[in-house]
Amino acid sequence: MAWYGSGGWDDYPPYMSTAQKKAHGVLALAKLLKKSKRTAEPVVIAHRKRQFATTFWGKAWSDNLERYADLANRLPRGRAYLRNGSVLDLSIAGGQVEAYVAGSELYRVTIGIAPLAKMRWRRVITRCTGRIGSLVGLLRGELSDDVLAVLTHAKDGLFPEPREMTLDCSCPDWAGLCKHVAAVLYGVGIRLDAKPELFFVLRRADQAELLSSATAGPLSRGRPAAGKRIADDRLSAVFGIELEDATPGARHPSRRGTSGPSRVSKRRR
For the residues of 1-65, what is the DSSP string, one character each? Predict the structure, then answer.
């Protein structure tokens, strides 16, 4: 697309190599971040594999993007930008991705992700009950095929659909998904490789809830014992004595004075 300059639509920006674009972008970004006293977090690819992401969460994020035709047709435009290190900064907060990409100028990319619908989240939890052994296993993607299928389901899983995303870039490209946004979308997958917990930050869901339902049964069975302990403590406070736990199956002391373990002992004053 022709660049709109002072001379009109026939003007183009002067040619800049990728290295020059990055150098100018780094300087511009440093000035921006100086105000917030924040250090840039560039997206770095440490390998030369065809697939950017290497872990479950990173690959599942990228696979989810590529399953939708309206995204997949334009995503390849961002791969070169990501490979040459043009994504100079990428941060993930609750429901939002903010990034800066080096181009003819330094462009700001903002991606909004809608919160995971409550009913959809509850269905995922229900289908995963008792099937996830630990939080570490969840974050590492060390899960059964059945659980992985639930998490990555196109309609009922955890990953966002195109209609749940808003894409914005400060570049002059009129396309909703420009090459800068595409580079950032792939960059999110690489970020999830290193910090998979950020996926749940992005979707505003508590990963611990996927584990809590599995322990709800044992906890509920333990409540009567906890109630007994509270009752004993209250009696102790009222009468000024300490109540010892009775051993299951132990006989009560005989009324005739037969020796036996006493259940009541005086509290030392």
Answer: ----BTTBTT--PPP--HHHHHHHHHHHHHHHHHHHT---------S--SSS--SHHHHHHHHHH
Whole-angstrom distance, CA of residue 261 vs CA of residue 129:
45
Are 140 and 56 within 8 A, CB to CB? Answer: yes
Least confident of 3-7, 22-26, 212-216: 3-7
Tell me how far apart the alpha carbons of residues 222 and 144 are, in angstroms, rounded to a whole number. Answer: 29
CB proximity list for 129: less than 8 A, separation 6 or greater: 213, 214
Using DSSP's 3-state secondary structure scheme, residue 157 falls into coil
Strands (E), the chain: 87-93, 96-102, 106-113, 165-169, 241-243, 264-266
The structure's pTM equals 0.73
Residue type, 85: G
Q: For residues 109 and 29, is the Cβ–Cβ distance under 8 A?
A: no
Give Cα 34 to chain centroid, integer Å: 27
Which residue, chain included where needed, has tokens 């998904």?
Answer: 177
Q: Write the pLDDT tens digit of every residue in 43-95.
A: 988 766 667 888 999 999 999 999 987 788 788 889 889 999 999 999 999 99
Q: What integer pLDDT is reported at residue 97 of this predicted model?
A: 98
